[in-house]
Design brief:
By secondary structure, the protein is α+β, with helices and mostly antiparallel strands. The chain folds into 2 domains: 1-176 and 293-344, Triger factor/SurA peptide-binding fold (Orthogonal Bundle), CATH 1.10.4030; 180-286, Chitinase A, domain 3, CATH 3.10.50.40. Helix content is 52%, strand content 12%. It contains 13 helices and 9 strands. It has helices at residues 5-12, 21-26, 40-53, 63-93, 100-113, 119-128, 133-153, 162-171, 200-218, 223-230, 252-259, 296-322, 330-340; strands at residues 29-33, 36-39, 177-178, 181-190, 241-246, 270-271, 275-285, 288-289, 325-327. A 4-stranded antiparallel β-sheet has the order 5-4-7-6. Strands 2-1-9 form a 3-stranded antiparallel β-sheet. It has a two-stranded antiparallel sheet with strand order 3-8. Helix 3 (40-53) packs across helix 4 (63-93), helix 4 (63-93) packs across helix 7 and helix 4 (63-93) packs across helix 13 (330-340). The longest helix has 31 residues, at 63-93. The radius of gyration is 33 Å and the shape is elongated.
Length: 363
C-alpha cells in the first residue's frame, strides 16, 4: 500500500500525540470509550481537518456558514472517531503492532513518492506539516492496526458465489452492455467567411463542389483519399476518420441520417456552420451484452465492496453494543445517536461474577 505524504499528512497531523498526564487532567473530555478518551481539543482538530479535506474556507465574517458546515460534518465525524477508537482497542487486544521493518518500508515509500532524498528534506516536510517523526509513526501504526482488524475480523468473512455474480449480472445488464457505436469519415468543404454577411455565390459554389466530390466517391474513388486531399476539416490528416463514437452521443439529426445508412454509404452534402459536410459510414456495431465471464472481475469488485460495507457496518454495530460509552458532552451524544442510533441496553451484572443463582427451595 502506498502512502502519499501530501495527501496523508493533513489528515493525520491533527492527532494529539504525547500529551502529558497533567495536560490530560486539565483537558476537557467529550466521551470515554471503554475507558479511553476523546478530548474536546482532539475532536475540534478533527473537525478542522475534515473542513480542510472538503476545501471549505471561511472568512471571519462567515460565522453562520462555518457553524452550518460544522453541524453538517459533526454527526458522522463523531461516529467515525468512536469507531476508530473501538477498532484500535480491538487491535491492541489482538496485539497488533507496527514493526520497525514495516515502518521503514512505508517511510521509504513516502520519501520516494515525494522526492525527499535526504533526511533533512524529509524532516523539513514533517515540520511543515506540524509533525515529528514520532507523530508520523504513531499515525502509521494506527492506520495499520485498523486495516489489520478490518482484514481479520471483516474481510475474511466476505465471499462471493457464482450464483451471486450471475444474479448481479442479470440485475445490472445495462451496465454490462456496450453501446451501439459508429465510425465515420468526414469531408468538409468550407465556405469562406465574408465580413459583409452571407455570400450566396460562395455558398452555392461550396455546395456544388461537395456534390462533385460525392459523385467521385460513389464512382469508386477512395473517400479516405478524397478527404485527405480535399477536406477543409482537421480530420483530413487521418483521411477524415472520426470515432468510434457512441451513437447515443451524436446529435439527434445525425442519428436520424445514419439510421437508414449501411457501411460505405455517403450522405448528401449537409449544411453546417462552417460549410458543407459529407459523412461516410465506415462501420457500425450494435449494442452488445458482455457475458458474465467477460466482466467477472468487475462484478467481483462491486459485490465485494458492497458486502464489505455491510459486514463492516455489522461489525462496528457489534463493537458499539459491547462498549461502555460515557458521554461528557450532550450535544455530541445527540449528534452521535442521530447516525449510530441510541445505545443498546446492557444486561445487568450479577453480583459474584460467575456465581449461580440460588436453587429454589424443595419441599
Amino acid at each position: 500500500m502506498k502512502f502519499h505524504l501530501r495527501a496523508m499528512l493533513p489528515a493525520i497531523a491533527v492527532l494529539v500525540i504525547g500529551v502529558s498526564a497533567r495536560a490530560e487532567i486539565l483537558e476537557q473530555i467529550v466521551v470515554k470509550v471503554n475507558g479511553d478518551i476523546i478530548t474536546k481539543t482532539e475532536f475540534e482538530q478533527k473537525q478542522v481537518a475534515a473542513l480542510r479535506q472538503r476545501n471549505l474556507q471561511f472568512s471571519p465574517d462567515q460565522t453562520e456558514e462555518l457553524k452550518k458546515a460544522i453541524a453538517e460534518i459533526t454527526p458522522q465525524l463523531i461516529v467515525d472517531a468512536v469507531d476508530e477508537l473501538l477498532l484500535l482497542q480491538r487491535g491492541h487486544e489482538l496485539n497488533y503492532k507496527l514493526s520497525d521493518e514495516q515502518y521503514n518500508s512505508v517511510v521509504e515509500q513516502i520519501r520516494k513518492d515525494n522526492k525527499l532524498e535526504s533526511d533533512e528534506a524529509f524532516h523539513a516536510a514533517l515540520k511543515n506539516e506540524g509533525m515529528t517523526e514520532a507523530d508520523l509513526r504513531r499515525s502509521l501504526e494506527k492506520q495499520m492496526i485498523i486495516s489489520r482488524v478490518q482484514g481479520q475480523e471483516v474481510m475474511q468473512k466476505v465471499g462471493i458465489t457464482e450464483e451471486e455474480a450471475r444474479k448481479y449480472h442479470e440485475e445490472h445488464i445495462a451496465e454490462f452492455t456496450r453501446p451501439a457505436q459508429v465510425t465515420l469519415r468526414e469531408l468538409l468543404v468550407a465556405i469562406p467567411s465574408d465580413p459583409k454577411g452571407v455570400n450566396v455565390g460562395a455558398e452555392e459554389e461550396a455546395k456544388q463542389k461537395a456534390e462533385e466530390i460525392r459523385k467521385r466517391a460513389l464512382a469508386g474513388e477512395s473517400f479516405e483519399k478524397l478527404a485527405a486531399d480535399l477536406s477543409d476539416a482537421a480530420s483530413k490528416a487521418n483521411g477524415g476518420l472520426i470515432g468510434p463514437l457512441n451513437t447515443s452521443e451524436l446529435s439527434t439529426a445525425l442519428q436520424q441520417v445514419l439510421a437508414s445508412m449501411k457501411p460505405g454509404d455517403i450522405t448528401e452534402p449537409l449544411r453546417t456552420a462552417k460549410g458543407f459536410q459529407l459523412i461516410m459510414l465506415e462501420s457500425q456495431t450494435a449494442p452488445q451484452v458482455l457475458k458474465p465471464e467477460e466482466v467477472r472481475d468487475q462484478i467481483a469488485e462491486r459485490l465485494y465492496e458492497q458486502k464489505r460495507r455491510v459486514e463492516l457496518k455489522k461489525y462496528l454495530a457489534k463493537l458499539r453494543s459491547q462498549a461502555i460509552i460515557e458521554w461528557k458532552n450532550d450535544e455530541l451524544r445527540k449528534a452521535y445517536e442521530s447516525v449510530a442510533g441510541p445505545p443498546a441496553p446492557h444486561a445487568p451484572e450479577v453480583p459474584g461474577g460467575d456465581a449461580k443463582p440460588p436453587a429454589p427451595p424443595t419441599n
